[in-house]
Design a protein that fits this description.
three-stranded antiparallel β-sheet; 11 strands; about 35% strand; eight-stranded antiparallel β-sheet; about 170 residues
């Protein structure tokens, strides 16, 4: 089951996050994404840019503290990973391929997505449910549910924060 919360963050705080993520001082790192899931996709679309804030018990970004109020709002027992994905505009919506964020099915990991901008990209679940990227919307679901993201065609980029955690 997917839980959807619109207007998840206070508007001023949400805008602060978006301004930082969109600034020239926020670093992005190139990653291939279709290697195993979509080998038929043209290599021109076989990438996304990411910024990992927290992973494997370590803070990986000078911007991590900006996201502490968001983490406090979610109130996890354990934060597993926090990163932001940037998918550039494509000519058609391209799905990345069904996956789970972690293969560790016995760890009760919850996945959360916070859409940082509105666009015609989306997240689709193995059930067929499709959730459009609408800014400041948070979706939460069990990590064991297969899902895929899709690029956008109507804005220059799709920005999504990916948060993985274990609930209290």
């Amino acid at each position: 089951m997917v839980k959807i919360t619109k207007n998840f963050l206070d508007k001023d705080y949400f805008n602060e996050i978006c301004n930082v993520v969109s600034s020239n001082s926020f670093s992005w790192y190139y990653n291939n994404i279709f290697e195993k899931t979509r080998p038929e996709i043209n290599n021109d679309y076989n990438f996304q840019l990411t910024h990992t804030l927290y992973s494997k018990g370590n803070t990986n970004s000078q911007f991590f503290n900006l996201f502490q109020p968001l983490i406090d709002l979610i109130d996890p027992f354990l934060l597993v990973k926090l990163k932001i994905n940037l998918n550039p505009k494509t000519h058609t919506n391209i799905e990345h391929g069904m996956h789970t964020d972690f293969n560790e099915k016995d760890k009760n990991i919850t996945s959360g997505l916070l859409y940082l901008n509105t666009n015609n990209g989306y997240t689709r679940f193995e059930t067929g449910e499709k959730i459009q990227s609408v800014e400041n919307t948070f979706i939460e679901f069990d990590n064991n549910i297969n899902h895929t993201g899709a690029t956008c065609t109507d804005t220059y980029r799709r920005l999504v924060m990916n948060i993985n955690y274990i609930k209290r």
